[in-house]
Amino acid sequence: MSARHQTIAELAPRLASGTLSAEALLDECLAAIAAHDRDLGAILALVPDARAEAQACDREAREGRVRGPLHGVPIVVKDNIDVAGLPTTSGCLGLSGAMPHRDAVQVARLKAAGAVILGKTNLSEFSFEIRSRSSLGGDVRNPFAPYVTSGGSSGGSAVAVAAGFAVAGLGSDTGGSIRVPAAYNGLVGLRPSHDLLDKTGVAPLAPSTDTVAPLARSVADAALLFEVMGGAASFAPIERRRVGVLRQAFGENREIAAACERACAILADAGVEIVDPAALPDEVLPIGRPHIVDAEFADAFDAYLAANFLPDTAPHDLAAIVAEGSHLPDYRDDLERRIRDRAKGRDAVLSYHADLRTALEEMMQAHRLDALLHPTSMVLPETLDNPKGGWAPELAACSGWPALGVPAGANAQGLPIGVELLGRARSEGMLLDLGAAIERGIGPRRRPSLALSTYR
Fold this sequence. Notes:
Blueprint: H1 8-17, H2 22-40, E1 43-46, H3 50-62, E2 74-78, H4 105-112, E3 116-121, E4 133-134, E5 138-139, E6 141-142, E7 145-149, H5 155-163, E8 168-173, H6 179-184, E9 188-191, E10 211-216, H7 219-228, E11 242-245, H8 254-269, E12 273-275, H9 292-307, H10 318-324, H11 332-340, H12 346-366, E13 371-375, H13 393-399, E14 403-410, E15 416-423, H14 428-442
Parallel strand pairs: 2-3, 2-8, 11-12, 11-13
Antiparallel strand pairs: 1-3, 4-5, 6-7, 8-10, 9-10, 9-14, 13-15, 14-15
């Protein structure tokens, strides 16, 4: 297997010892980008000094010095997260020159741990949707099925990791933006407890539910990245854990339901007790409700524009972007409405979030559950437009609880299927333990073929 398709756990010892060159690994990734990204649309910009950083890692390895657990590992960053020296565009033409003051906190932590930041990735513009389409980069296409979306909003990071353009990725998740593209691209996606990880230098969508998080090829890699970013992910036995199956979130796709049942069987074989809890009350389901993004985006993004960028490199506010028309045309109505109705109904939405969190806690207590299991998405994408993925990812977003998405197989056409584990606040370690058991039972990660004939 090419080094660019391996996990951090496989690569790190070789990079640290110098038996694998960080520059050679970077070159493998860059060659894959040159060969395939014209068809996939994952990368918006490459970091100019990435080669110098890789060369420095190689020199240090020869001298017996290791920067940290990510020494020489090439990583991509969603382009709503600051990387010093490159614009942070959120996929928007109006922000194509917006130069941040410094690295985002999480980018700085990855670099301090030895990562080589390779590039910035395409996304759903402003992180609005669960497809990935932007006025700067167009659509991000799924490498397993190039005529469907990669999912979003962190689709570019997911595709880059799945396709071997980088070994891991950094993204953000407000309502499913890590977990949905992880599911559609056969990756592990961790949404941490709200406000656990520092989001300084990440463009806001809705501060009450925004998180910053990793996309990885394995649960172990996700755990390592989470720890580097400021989390704690100690592993422990999972025997006698109780996992509730949230069947009301399954939808009608039989292949997705079968993947969830397979994940449950794997957990049961590992000693986990699988429970069918009562359904959540219909009145608390996140269906057809006002969204916190509508209430928080405009004020939060305007404040971000005012404070985050070097002078004269970014518009003063969203109104200026709309006036110039320098955004995805599809978003004009949403932008105008969110600017006009800013903060409207915020208290009511947050009150609903509290009600949902209470209902989840009551279910967990009544059935003595450690976690819930459900599909990340009720459907698989069929076009480049937004799939009707369902409400399940909003459970983590609205409650503030952590969630872990892991691969659970694929449909008959080879498109990956993901399942999600949801636990109480600060239960990331336990979710990672459960996810690792599913991963072992499912077997090796699926990789897209990237045969050029399938893209043209």
